[in-house]
Amino acid sequence: MLYQLYEIQRAMVEPFADFAQAAAKLYSNPHSLLSQGPMSQRMAAGFDLFYRLGKDYEKPEFNLHSVDVGGVDVTIRERVEVDKPFCELRRFKRFSDDTDTLQTMLSQPVVLIVAPLSGHYATLLRDTVQSMLGDHKVYITDWKNARLVPLADGEFHLDDYVNYVQEFIRYLQGKYGQCHVVSVCQPTVPVLAAVSLMASRGETPPLSMTMMGGPIDARRSPTSVNNLAQNRSFEWFENNVIYRVPEGYPGVGRRVYPGFLQYSGFVAMNPDRHAKSHYDYFKDLIKGDDASAEHHRKFYDEYNAVLDMDADYYLETIATVFQDYKLVHGTWEVRSPEGQAELVRPQDIKGSALLTVEGELDDISGSGQTRAAHDLCTGIAAEQRKHLEVPGAGHYGIFSGRRWREIVYPQVREFISAHQPESATAASAAGHTSSLSDDAPSATEQPRKRGAKVQAG
User: Fold this and answer.
1) Which residues form the PHB de-polymerase C-terminal domain (predicted)?
2) pTM for the full predicted model
3) Rounded to 10 degrees, what is the CA torsion of 287, 291, 293, 295?
4) Residues with pLDDT less than 50, the chain
5) Which residues pair with 437 in a beta bridge?
6) What's the CA gap between 241 and 229, in Å, rounded?
7) Residues paired with residue 383 on neighbouring β-strands, in sequence order
8) How far apart are CA 456 and CA 105, in angstroms?
C-alpha cells in the first residue's frame, strides 16, 4: 500500500513542480517583465529550489562522448554488449583515425567495472569510467530497475548476481583472452565470490581484482549502515521495506525494496548536510553563481535518481553479508545456473593480483572492511597484493572527484598495468582486431569520407 501512496503523492506534486519550473524561468528570464522586480532573483531561486525538490528524477545518462588518449581526442560510442533480464553489460567503444593512437588503444588492458546494485544507477561511477577510458578498454555492469523487469523474466537472487559476474568475466576472456575486474562498494563481495568459484573449478581468474570501499568483513569498524543491518532482524526488513510494484510498471507485482525508501535512508544518514547543500544552492542562485549551482544540480541529478531492488536479492544480501558474515566464516554456498550449490573459497584464488582501496573517512564501509579480502585470499602471493588507504577521503571520494583522479586512479592504473603480461596484451589486441568485423558498420553506415574514424577499444 505504501508504494501506491507514494505514487499518488508523486502524481499530486508533479503539476506543482512543473509550475515552479515555469515560474522560475519567468522570474529569471531577462526578457520577462517579472524579472525586473526587486525580489525577482529570490523568487526565481525559490521556485527553482521547489522544482528540484518536487521533480521526478529519471535514470541519468553517462554522456561520455570523447576522451583524451595520449593527447588525442578520441570519440566514444556507448552500446550494450550483453543484455540480461536484470543487467546490461555496457561497453564504451572508442574510435580514432590516428594510427598511433589506434595502436595504443589496441594494446590497452580490458577492464570490467562492476557497479553497485544498492540504490543508485551505474552512472554514479561516471567519473570512474571517464578516467579509466584513457588507458583501458572499459565495460560496466548497468543494473536494471527491478520495477521495469516483468515477472515473466523470473526471480533475481544474490546467487544470480554472482553468476552474472562470472558470465561477464568469461565473455571478456573469450573475446580478449583476459581481463581485469574493478568492483566498487557493494559488489566487492559477489565479485570475490565469483572469482573464488571460478578458481575452485579450475577456470582462469581475472588478471587482477581491484576492490574499493566494500563490506568484505562488515564486522570491522561498523558504520551506521552496518549497525542498522545488525540490529534489525531479517523479518523486520522483510516486513517493513519490501513492497510490490504497483500498476503502471512492467514489473507490476514484483516484490522490491523501493527506490524512494532507499533515498529516504540515504538522506536520513546526513540530513543536516543535505539541508545545508540545498540552502547553499538557493544562495548561489541569488548571487548568480552559475558554476556552483550547476555543480549542485549535477550531483543531485545523480544522487536523487534511485532504482528498485528485487526483494530476494536485497534480503539475501542483508543476511549473507551483514548478519551471518558467510563469506568470512567460510559458510557461503552459491547455487550455479545448473542448480548446484558450490562453497565460496577465496583461498583457492591463485594467479590473480589483488588491490584493495579504502577511504579514511568512509562512513559506508568502515576501515578494514575491504582490506579483509587479503586475509581471505591466502592463495595470492604477498607481492601480488596491495592495499591503499586514501587520506581525507569519504566513501564517494575513492571513486569520484579530485582524490579519485589525483590519488586513487594513478595507483589503480599502475597496478593494472603491472599485472598485464605481454601475452595478455597481445591477446587483447588480437581479440579486438578479430572483433572489427563484428563491429563493422552496415552498408548504409560505411564511412564515405577520407579520414573517417576507426574503432579501437
Assistant:
1) 213-419
2) 0.90
3) -160
4) 432-452
5) none
6) 12
7) none
8) 6
